[in-house]
Amino acid sequence: MGQLFICDHPLIQHKLTYIRDENTTTKDFRALVDEVATLMVYEITRDIPLEQVDVKTPVTTAKSNVISGRMLGLIPILRAGLGMVDGVLKLIPAAKVGHVGLYRDEETLQPVEYYVKLPKDVLERDLLVIDPMLATGGSANAAIEVLKKRGCSRIKLMCLIAAPEGVKAVQEAHPDVDIYVAALDSHLNEHGYIVPGLGDAGDRLYGTD
Ligand code: URA
């Protein structure tokens, strides 16, 4: 079973309150989401492996640590996932970014891929799927499926806010995927919005509401 990690650092929780606030402007919303993404990736990368190297300081030669192992690939789900990419890249500028676009088929209600563009070396990377809102889990599961179909493994999911329904759906469909969120909210309402949530993340990021 994939684990659920709640990034409960006080700075993340403080900023999340203003992200939720309906009076927060588009400009501030975007800036806050960007900042929280940076703070979250600091927590998410806590377990990445290090290796020792020699470093020549102005004083002496010393053993010191650098990150080893696989490079990171970011996979934002269009469009709201884009709002967290730059915040992650601030700490991991060498990460490559793939994009997954999905729409919901009105008859089957299933997510359908309309755009997938992944880094060439995606199979050699640890992957972080990014979507601010984990609501039903439909999009996250479909995006993870897109990656697995192409042979990817070592996938994590990063969201701002999750509903218990979405967490359960991802844990059942992809028990190998750990989920990182800033908050686990109460439930989904009849329109599929997370309660209390923050409204439509894409609309609030891009001022389209
Ligand atoms: N997507 C959003 O943007 N908000 C929700 O509350 C649920 C899904």
From TrEMBL:
Residues noted as binding uracil in the record, renumbered to the chain: I194, G199, D200, A201
CDD domains registered for this protein in UniProt: PRTases_typeI
GO BP annotation list: UMP salvage; uracil salvage
EC number(s) per entry: 2.4.2.9
Domain spans labelled Phosphoribosyltransferase: 7-208
Role of this protein: Catalyzes the conversion of uracil and 5-phospho-alpha-D-ribose 1-diphosphate (PRPP) to UMP and diphosphate.
Entry protein name: Uracil phosphoribosyltransferase
Organism: Paenibacillus whitsoniae
Organism placement in taxonomy: Bacteria, Bacillati, Bacillota, Bacilli, Bacillales
Name of the encoding gene: upp
